[in-house]
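The pair is quoted verbatim underneath.

:::
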Amino acid sequence: MKKMGIKLFVVSFTLMVYVTGFGFNLKSLDNGKDLPNNAKDKITANVARVDLTPPLEMKFALGGYGDRMNKPAIGVHDKIWAKAVVLKKGNKKYAIITIDILGIPPNVKPQLLKTLSGKGWNEENIMLLPSHSHTSLEMAALNDKNNLNSPQIGKFQPELLSFVISTLSKLVNEVDKNYQEVKIGTGSMLVEGMNRNRRGETGVDKELTITRIDYKTGKPMAVLVNWTAHPTFMSEKDMEVSGGWPGYLQRSLEQKIGKGVTVLYYNGAEGDQSPIGIGGSSHHEKAKKYGVKMSDKAFHVYKNIKTSSKVKFDYTYTTIKLPERKVHPSFMETGGAEYNFTPEALTAVLHVMAPENTGIGSVRIGDLLLVGAPGELTAGLGLQIKSKLKAKGIRNPVIGGLANEWISYILSADQYNHGAGYESSVSFYGDGLGEIIVNGMMDVAIPLVK
């Protein structure tokens, strides 16, 4: 993702004002108090998937590298998918939606929710989780505030945004019915030699976490896979649509488990995490080998998970005010020079278009506690959150990277000021952003600990 530079900040530039003033506004989401006890205890679920691959006639660009100069995809190597699993207990329901794309600009989720009006969906009970594939849909093409008309950054494409919103809406409507009783369990293992810190720092999240959702008969319904690494085996020269190694992981694990199971992959605090290649004669062969090997690890964890019909289920959500937007001193060393943006020009754009607020959500499903990060959180910060939650008794805390929207890279103060290089130059809220986001993530996670 070295060449993305300024490309990433544009996709986050949609004003999303949820609250005014600093501080947090945690919402209570329990609306099932009047249900019979047996209905409260019963957990049900459904799963669905939809082909998110646009027609090539749409001439859509692939996201991930400015050197592609907004050229359209020339073919489909493997399809990209959006998948949803919805859990329901009493009157409360929650959708986890994984998407085989680079990321989501801030306008996508609000526009999706408009199409779902009156059906019980809101900003609090849907979490969108992109895989961060670098051979999938261009984020800037989905951003209706992108009027820069820059080929390096990517151009807004209204028909592509319409296609994505329509397809995701169909997915949610399809999954929000025919709920079945389920049993759920989560397990994890440490995996060595498959990811690294690309900045040379010590923070590496080696934890692979698998959540198994079975019908009450024991037949598999869905499997959630959390593993932290950039999907960057493909380069700017690869111009066919692909889900990258996460796509191979999902397909391979579905084949291993069989019985019609749906596997949903979501990334973690991948801001400085890269995959470690294990061979292959081409970029796609490298991605395949990596994805298949990770599916082997996931299958090992999956087989040893014990499921239960009695699991804790709840979720929380908050909106937080972001710090003052500012340009990093090293900006011109990376994206500025490459994309012909001066610090003065970027400052003007930031103060007009950068989000002033962001939303953070968390969901508890038995031993799993998933906390969303609205951008690219570095692994060191993610590990801090996971460590604190483990100390409070959560067996399997995970970070949902790039959740719901991309605001920027999210770094510690030390990383921002001294060590993060490229990542710091595309972090647009100063050295206090990491602390504010981590505090917000903990604020939504802690109420779910009990």
About this structure: The longest helix spans residues 283-303. Residues 11 and 139 are 6 Å apart (CA to CA). The longest strand covers residues 180-190.
